[in-house]
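Protein data:
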Amino acid sequence: MKKEDCFYLGKIVKKYSFKGELLAKLDTDEPELYENLDAIFIDLRGNLVPFFVESSQLHKSDLLRLNFEDVDSEADADALLKCDLYLPLDLLPKLEGNKFYFHEVIGFKITDENFGEVGIIKSVNDSTAQALFEIDRNSIEILIPMNDEFIVNVDRKNKTVFVNTPEGLIDLYLED
């Protein structure tokens, strides 16, 4: 399994017991969706390694207590501390309407109600306070904030995101 075929679920943050149980901080608004997993991929030195889940349950609402097969000592658990957890993309719950996963809209066209066709979404920058669409328009990079008020419609069938940005925003990138 390759990382690009998976989504980041969270990180193992601490040991729970001396029997190898671990606590993972999940990167989700709905941790209960991941309570009954059969297996999970753990990033061990850049390789995704499958681990089978013997038992799991939510712990203090946002942590998932995990007990893996063949991890039954503190030493085994120590080896997994601070490792990232991944699941295959097909396990992501389907989003509808104008909600989308960042990876889902890469390659979509973006069209502004005032400007017209802007370009192709090449990535999403979520390292800033406001996530940004990074759009390629004839080798010019245009950044549009992923603001709910700007996103008019996500047309999955035609792979297009329709936006209504403030007047002049897109032109800022195109002026010499």
Remarks:
- The longest helix spans residues 74-78.
- The chain has two domains: 3-91, 102-174.
- The mean pLDDT is 91.
- Helices lie at 74-78, 171-174.
